[in-house]
Design goal:
By secondary structure, the protein is an all-alpha fold. It is 70% helix and 0% strand. It has nine helices and no strands. The longest helix is centred in the middle third of the chain and has 24 residues, at 82-105.
Length: 155
């Protein structure tokens, strides 16, 4: 979890909650992060396995994960109210982890890209509406379009 601190510092330096959330969403749900399994997020890499463990390994992961959520909440500052901030961070992180897990799990690159794109678009609407309106449309354009992805990606 400690490797994420550099990224959290960059996120925390952004001037608004919307910009902080946008930076996390765009970097977490990138093709680069999906493809870089070896040095990516430990939550996605081993989270499901931890649920099957007991004892010291699970306790250590739990402490690390809870500390990571605390650091993420402090960096994002999505709400001034601590309990709401925690809820928003858990919601955002759960969405990010689930989307990345799904995108990594399938062997169809078009479908994987579509998952990342759809979730980036959805989470930007939910967490970054103010930023999205301020960013020129050309900068928001995806490299692919979920609606134009062939239906064969489900096959």
């Amino acid at each position: 979890f400690d490797a994420a601190v550099i990224n959290l510092d960059r996120i925390a330096a952004q001037p608004t909650p919307a910009r902080r959330a946008r930076m996390l969403i765009d970097s977490y749900l990138s093709a680069r992060h999906r493809d870089n399994r070896g040095s990516g997020c430990v939550v996605v890499a081993v989270g499901a396995d931890m649920a099957r463990l007991h004892g010291a390994a699970r306790a250590g992961y739990s402490r690390g994960f809870m500390g990571h959520l605390d650091r993420l909440g402090a960096a994002l500052r999505l709400s001034e109210e601590p309990l709401l901030n925690r809820d928003l961070v858990v919601h955002l992180m759960s969405s990010l982890v689930g989307a990345l897990l799904f995108a990594r799990a399938i062997d169809n690159s078009a479908a994987s890209d579509a998952i990342l794109h759809a979730m980036r678009r959805h989470l930007r609407r939910e967490f970054c509406a103010k930023v999205a309106a301020a960013v020129p449309k050309a900068e928001r354009a995806p490299s692919h379009d979920f609606l134009n992805t062939p239906a064969s990606f489900l096959a």
